[in-house]
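Deliverable D5.2: sample structural annotation.
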Amino acid sequence: MSNTYILGWELGSIYECSARSTTGSSGTLEAIPAAARTGNYGMHIQLPAGKLGFTQHFLYDSSLTPRAFAQSFRFYFKLLHLPGTAVNLFIVGSPTVAALSMNPNGTLYVRAGSLNSANSTNAMTVDGGWHLMAVNAGYNAGNGAQVFVDGVLWASQTTGVIIPSNGTLFNVGSSSADTVGGFEAYYDDILVDNSSVTLGAGGSVLLPAAADSSTGSWLAGGGGATNLFNAVKNIPPAGKSDANATNTSQIHNFSASGNQDYKAVCNSYTSAKIDGSCTINAMQAVVNDGTPTLTARAGGVWVDSNPSQVAGGQSFEFGYNEGLAAINNFQVGWSHNLGPCFPSPTGVDFLGAPTVAVRKTDANSQMVDVDFMGMYVDYIPGSPGVSSISIVDRQRL
């Protein structure tokens, strides 16, 4: 098992994705506090008649090649209104690796591969509660898919062929229109994995930048050389065009030297009520980035310390978001990138704070910009009243 992608809409924007698609002006697709199960935001979707809406998520490397990172998945779901016709809830892959959909009566059907599906007998209802939805793709010796709701098996498809190399994206929401209309729901706390696994409980919080660790040749958007974190902690991000950039909207780098790093200390674990009694499922560095030109430039992002990953992290191209556009007021031209996911990390000092890093890899003087940095944590809360004692401290006892 290898977790690959954490998503909780904690940037406070539906554009925490690679692409957003809606049909018509009356559909709703938004990140709002009311839709939060954990953290501060979740996704709200509402589809009137004939409308569709979904967010699409890729992980491109620095050569603009999409990574194959998605196979099994978990998300939390609160149904507000049943669909008028069948809608997709979650799709992995193109062609499809696995997918979960809902019928108008609330029953679910799980798909393995592009054609093979199985329907549930149980049905979702508008009960006002959050439900853990987990799909294990490839559970039957690399074939088939199962869907679990709150840990209970609802449906299995045994023969559909799972092709992991097709798992280069996932869609949240429905890429098929609700032709009658009515579908409405909240989503939160998504975890994606690149193997056959039934992912369990968890919730995601985002720790934004809170202090500079090292700035190197990076500068604030208005030219400032100190307190750069003030420009990459904003939720939602406050990025602007380079001509209008300020010391609190973004940071940038135009050094002709390669491997130029900026490192930021994030909010502490205890600020998010994460301590040694919690179970950490995964951690992942987050960066929102862009460039003022239409030429892609290589970068990297990773967790630098507490815990630490290999410097350079996961490569990406600044500003590449299903194409390139010059940055302007967020979200125009800005892209969302993630570092390597860090499953079940050890040696975490919960009394401290993590540090995340972003790198301008290319040795050229072209400008690159960043308007947000932080770290996602997907975790299971511990026992109430347990003190914030770190794993490191527990190992000393």
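Annotation notes: The CA atoms of residues 277 and 386 lie 6 Å apart. The chain is about 0% helix and 45% strand.
The annotation will be released with the project's public dataset once the embargo ends.
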